[in-house]
Amino acid sequence: MLLCYRIFAAVLSFVHLMILQIVLVPNSARGGNIVFNTGEGFEEAKTAPQSVVHIRNQQRNGRKSLTTISGLQEDLDLKKILKYIRKMYSTNGTVKKDKEHGEVIQVQGDLRKEIASFLVEYKVCSKEEIKLHGF
């Protein structure tokens, strides 16, 4: 049992390190915000216009549901963000193109609060930019 716990703790710390590699040194140390970008390294965010990130829950059938995230900045690498959301919350998801909203992240399950806290914690967007729907 102890060996199993140590392996689990090692895996969790590895996942946490992977996330920290892509995210951020504190704003004060860098002099600006760091965002997920489509290149190899980090980019400092220029004073981007405030956009609203919409997080919605869509009922499928029975108890099944989808969480959709739309309105993220276009320069963000949505596939990389989705990769870490899937690992952290043990779920599956995809990036879909929508005529009305552009590229949208779809995640299985009702993870509105968890995804909102993920986006704020890893400084993808601020808490004021997030709009939760369906409460």
UniProtKB/TrEMBL annotation:
GO terms for molecular function: translation initiation factor activity. Residues 53-123 form the SUI1 domain. The chain crosses the membrane at residues 6-25. Belongs to the SUI1 family. It holds the Pfam family SUI1. It comes from Gymnochlora stellata. This is Translation initiation factor 1. Keywords: Initiation factor, Membrane, Protein biosynthesis, Transmembrane, Transmembrane helix.
